[in-house]
Structure formats: C-alpha cells, structure tokens
Amino acid sequence: MSRTRSNLGGFEVGMTASTVLFGVCTVQTVLYFSRFGKDPLLTRGLVMILWLLQGVQIVLMFGTIYWDLCTPPSALPADLWPDNVWQAFGIVISGLVQVFYSRLSHRLCRSWPLNVILDTLIVLKFVIGVCYQGGRIGGRD
C-alpha cells in the first residue's frame, strides 16, 4: 500500500483547499496585471512564474490522486513520482516567495543584519527541503 493511499482522505481535503486557493490566486494575478502593469519587470515576471508553478503543482497533485485511485494497489509503486515532484515544486515556490519578501524587507528598512538572518534561514530551509526531497526521489526515504 502506498503512503498516499493510507491517508487519502486528508490528501483530498488538502487538494480541494489548494484548488480553491489557486482560484483565488488566479483572480489576484489577473487583477494585479490589469491594475499594476507599470510595476518593475522583475516583479511582474515573478508573479507570472509563481502562478505558472502553482498551476503545474496543482496538475501534479491531481495526477497523484488519479494514479493512486485508478491504479490497482498491487501495481502501485512504493512512491509515486508526481507526489515527489509536486512537493519539490512547493519547496521552489516557497523559496521564491521568501526571497521576494526578504528583498522587499531590505528595501523598506535597509537593515543588513536582518537581511543576512532572513537570507540565511531561507537558504537553510531550501537546502534542507532539497536534501529531503532528493532522498525521497532517490528512494532513500
């Protein structure tokens, strides 16, 4: 039995919430581009990249549920690749958002010590997440 099948109910509830929040994010993205078209290219590009990454993450989450529900349990691998990949996308998305807010906090308060602490924590979280996901994808759970 795959790890996903043992807690499928919770995964489906989380998937529903993620899909609803992605819809809210889509509305916010459309409003952002219609109202703030003169923002810096870096900011507009980051908004578009994050929206696209979240869309791909939702598709991979649906793929995990579909694969887990429609494949006979005996034919399921121990770890589903879409499950690992969407979690890796989550690490990348959260890292990008945190870097953006770190950059914004530096622009607002110009505090180098605060920025060094924030950036160190962001890098540590990203490295730990990548190492953990790398171990899961490589089969070293």
The residue ranges in which pLDDT falls below 50 over 5 or more consecutive positions are none
The outline comes out as flat
Helix-strand pattern:
HHHHH
- Residue share in helices? over 70%
Fold and architecture overview:
The chain crosses the membrane at residues 13-33, 45-66, 86-104, 116-135. Keywords: Membrane, Transmembrane, Transmembrane helix. It contains 5 helices and no strands. With 141 residues, the protein is mostly helical. The chain has one domain. Helix 3 runs antiparallel to helix 4 (81-109). The protein is flat and about 55 Å long. The two termini are 16 Å apart. The model has no long low-confidence stretch (mean pLDDT 84).
Quick overview:
The protein contains five helices and no strands. It is mainly α and 141 residues long.
